[in-house]
Amino acid sequence: MSGLRDVVNEEDEVVGQATKEEVAARSLICRVSFIMLANDRGELLLHQRAATKKTYPHYWSGAAAGHLDAGESYLECALRETKEEIGITVDLEEIGRFYSAPDREMVGVFLGHFNNLDDLTIEPLEVEKVEFFSPARLEQERPTMKVTSYVERSMPLVLPRLRPPVV
């Protein structure tokens, strides 16, 4: 890891490189991969962010997420973060991108398939706990459930692609 990130414009074109600190100090746009995993029942794996996280502590988020290193592809980052944060390797498909203006981040959204929570190796500095949520449960709990903006923004991309429950 070089410690550098690609700096991009709102069209996701690389316009330079900067350190994590420079990106934050100068409010530059960088890239993020956001990973959602679904099981055979059409449920989504969400993780509750650790209490020690600077942003969104205790909020529910996707299976994993992370900033791209300079020169890294969205897919490379998604695979790396999935391995680092929850200890698994899965096939992932990029299903869309969006620009998060408040976060100054271009977000690549990935969807993969995963069933067995026992196969996860949780990084405790990143993740408090993980659970599968059905779309109905998410809708029911949404008024009181704290979720990251990435979960909110990703749902229109993810929900239409969920497999119907296997009976």
From TrEMBL:
Pfam families: NUDIX. Keywords: Hydrolase. One of its GO terms (molecular function) is hydrolase activity. Residues 28-160 form the Nudix hydrolase domain. InterPro entries: NUDIX_hydrolase-like_dom_sf, NUDIX_hydrolase_CS, NUDIX_hydrolase_dom. SUPFAM superfamilies: Nudix. This is Nudix hydrolase domain-containing protein. It comes from Paractinoplanes tereljensis. The lineage of its organism: Bacteria, Bacillati, Actinomycetota, Actinomycetes, Micromonosporales.
